Amino acid sequence: MTHIWVNDQLMNRNEAKIDAEDRGYQFGDGVYEVIKVYKGNLFEMEAHINRFYRSADELRIIIPYTKDVLHKMVYDLVEADQLNTGHVYMQVTRGVAERQHYFPDEASATFTAYTQVSDRPVEQFEQGVKTVLYDDIRWLRCDIKSLNLLGAVLAKQAAHEADCAEAILHREDIVTEGSSSNVYGVKNGIVYTHPANNLILKGITRDVVFRCAKEQGIEIVEEAMTVEELLTMDEVFFTSTGAEVSPIIQINDTIIGDGEPGETTRKLQQAFEAKVQESITI
Ligand SMILES: Cc1ncc(COP(=O)(O)O)c(CN[C@@H]2CONC2=O)c1O
């Protein structure tokens, strides 16, 4: 039996009860994080916690724990579930109150966190994936990791129906990011990706890849690509907590490069793997 934090109670997963008037349930009024666990070790935990609090602050949601207490709660959850490889999903909502759009005067945040076993998608790393293009119909605060995911849900559904792993989003002609990932193009060994502003989520994996690129002497230019530029890149890849560094070999009907994962992508995959291994202290 796995466990779940519901506020400050760690209980069996099937005992959790969430009120029908929780604002996360009714309005998507909350924020979340997905944290990878490798051999029982939380990867980039501090960065995820910092982004979690920043997202909550942007929505004026008060997380009722200090960062240290929250870190311990997540650590204890992984221990309780003896999670080896997988992820922790955690979220905080503005809480339970009679349904009204404006912030309720009286509501205390609802925090939940649970673990999920999830293997690393090794075949995806090795072979690369097909993707589709999809209009970025999301709101203009994509830098907040909010529960408002309908734009991403519809995009991912379109990818799923096309037997693809990801949808690449674009606002008119400008490529922003994936439905649940950051997207990069490589031309002549230089990596291009959308600037970290309100139109994308500044991924934790993106930050690790930036560090890896610097160490490897690979130039990254934070400059938005047009759809046409993306389709004519030598290499394309995407990153997320779950996808790590995954090559993209096809976008709609366009084969990227020679249809195989590229050299720069491979270098970044190897450098990222070294970071993963470093995080495993046992
Ligand atoms: C819209 C969006 N952009 C970028 C990313 C990549 O961010 P990280 O590198 O920090 O993961 C995510 C991750 N979304 C999480 C990752 O796994 N499932 C999700 O919903 C995302 O949802």
Automatic annotation (TrEMBL):
CC cofactor: pyridoxal 5'-phosphate
Assigned GO CC terms: cytosol
GO term, biological process aspect, one: carboxylic acid biosynthetic process
Keywords (A to Z) from UniProt: Aminotransferase, Pyridoxal phosphate, Transferase
GO terms, molecular function: D-alanine-2-oxoglutarate aminotransferase activity; pyridoxal phosphate binding
EC number: 2.6.1.21
Domain of life (superkingdom): Bacteria
Enzyme class: transferase
Reactions listed under catalytic activity: D-alanine + 2-oxoglutarate = D-glutamate + pyruvate
InterPro entries: Aminotrans_IV, Aminotrans_IV_CS, Aminotransferase-like, BCAT-like_C, BCAT-like_N, Class-IV_PLP-Dep_Aminotrnsfr, D_amino_transT
SUPFAM superfamilies hit by this protein: D-aminoacid aminotransferase-like PLP-dependent enzymes
Pfam families to which the protein is assigned, alphabetical: Aminotran_4
Assembly and oligomerization: Homodimer.
Function recorded in the entry: Acts on the D-isomers of alanine, leucine, aspartate, glutamate, aminobutyrate, norvaline and asparagine. The enzyme transfers an amino group from a substrate D-amino acid to the pyridoxal phosphate cofactor to form pyridoxamine and an alpha-keto acid in the first half-reaction.
Protein family: Belongs to the class-IV pyridoxal-phosphate-dependent aminotransferase family.
Entry-linked NCBIfam families: D_amino_aminoT
Protein's name according to its UniProt entry: D-alanine aminotransferase
Organism placement in taxonomy: Bacteria, Bacillati, Bacillota, Bacilli, Bacillales
